[in-house]
Design brief:
Blueprint: H1 6-37, H2 44-76, E1 90-95, E2 98-104, E3 110-113, E4 116-121, H3 126-131, E5 139-142, E6 145-152
Parallel strand pairs: 2-4
Antiparallel strand pairs: 1-2, 1-6, 3-4, 5-6
Helix pairs in contact: 1-2
Length: about 150
């Protein structure tokens, strides 16, 4: 399997996080504007329900904003690879006859780099936790499936 350049993967992950950050910032701004525009109607219960729904949306967006900011902080403070899998490591795994690429860092879904799909996995996830500290040649078992570490960088 041709392995994408690690710096390209990090850039793709960072761009995805920045895009998520931009989207949630716009959403939060819109929700805050909506709550300010909300005027109390004669139907008080309807007003209170609408206002509470907007507040819930704001809380959800603020949580996503904090999460995206934390993800960006992780990407900005990656460590160089020194033989064992840590945050920021690219891992090539083989499961049966299928190879896959994993990036240990913020879990933001799959990213595409040079037409290659890379799965992002958090070190705190069960799968990521199993990979931490391993190196090329090691194996892990997850959900009763065996994965061999073909390469890490």
């Amino acid at each position: 399997m041709d392995q994408p350049n690690k710096s390209d993967v990090i850039l793709a992950v960072k761009n995805r996080i920045l895009s998520m950050l931009n989207t949630v910032t716009e959403s939060l701004e819109s929700e805050r504007n909506a709550i300010q525009q909300e005027t109390k109607s004669s139907a008080g219960d309807k007003y209170e329900t609408q206002r509470e729904m907007l507040q819930a949306d704001i809380r959800r967006s603020e949580h996503q904003l904090n999460e995206s900011t934390n993800h960006l902080d992780i990407i900005d403070h990656l460590f160089d690879f020194h033989g064992k899998i840590i945050i920021g490591t690219m891992v090539e795994l083989k499961q049966e006859k299928q190879n896959m690429l994993i990036f240990i860092g913020p879990a933001i879904g799959d990213v595409m780099v040079n037409q290659t799909k890379i799965k992002t996995v958090s070190q705190a996830s069960p799968f990521g936790h199993l990979l931490m500290g391993k190196t090329t040649g090691d194996s892990i078992v997850f959900n009763q499936k065996s994965f061999s570490i073909v390469n890490c960088y």
